[in-house]
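Support request, please re-run this one:
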Amino acid sequence: MRKRVIVNWVIAFIVSILVGLITRVIMGGSLTMSAMEFIWSAGYSLSLGLPLFANGYLFEWFEKRYIDWVNRPGTSVVRALLMHIVYSSAVIWTVNWFWFIYVMDREWDSFLQYNRGTIISEYIIFIIIASIIYAVSFFKAWRYAVRQREEVKRESLALKYKVLQDQINPHFLFNSLNVLGSLIDIDVEKAKEFTRELSKFYRDVLQFKDLDIISLKEEIDFVTKYIYLQQIRFGEALQVDIIANEKVEGKVIPLSVQALVENAIKHNEISKANPLKIVVAISDDYELVVENNLQPKTQVEDSSKTGLKNMAGRYEYLTGKQMEVSKNGGYFRVSVPLIRIEEGVE
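Re-run finished. Output below.
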């Protein structure tokens, strides 16, 4: 990385001098000059060319924070133009002022008369360079977006298949039927209620599987059904506290919060002596947080370990933010950036 930066600056150094010489030929008609004239010409070209070259690095920083060529092309062009005009104007006018007033020891009254042609030429060069930078940045962003869409489509299909497979797999159904069998002998009304909730759960699975995003309220309602079924099985050993405000205007990927709750249940020991405590909440950063105490099972069912990775990729694509996974102080936490309704709209 450092080597590439050094090479780029060396190239900028050489190109700045060459541009200065070419400009001298165009404006003066001759390349003949003394050694001192060459040094002065090279100094002027470098003092102008190197800061303008640094504009490329400044634009990379600016682009990451304020430019979105794919979703907000109009706004991005205006922002990029303003940034380039302000920076380049500051460089062009400062350099010409310094060389004219301090190096050449001229009067300010004749500044525009003497430098008008030079400044206009430099602005023309700026427009050409800016156009090239915009074109390269736009096509890079466009190509990346196309690749991301294809990758997200593949990951979406894989995640949907995995979620359906996890929810309708024999283990889950077997455990549910065992619970139902036990309830029939103990509490018929409770067994009927369990059957109704189980049917609602599978109905929602089939309903959500073809959707890209759903409201937070819909997801919370679905998670509540899933937790109810699991608490029938585990009793007080499973404690889930949902404090997320369902009125928050945000959306999520279908079954994603449920998958995080299921992940906690799947990978941790659950008993009356060591209850599993899960919290679902909204953070101050507009993120949905799923957190549980860590008490890992000694043996866990086989897992492809791609569920969280695929989910993180889809949320990053839809929100531009990363899903964070952390283990701290005996707790496992996943922070999911909520999808704002206005995101992706110009």
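Residues 25 and 31 are 6 Å apart (CA to CA). Strands lie at 214-215, 238-242, 250-252, 276-282, 287-293, 324-328, 331-337, 339-340.
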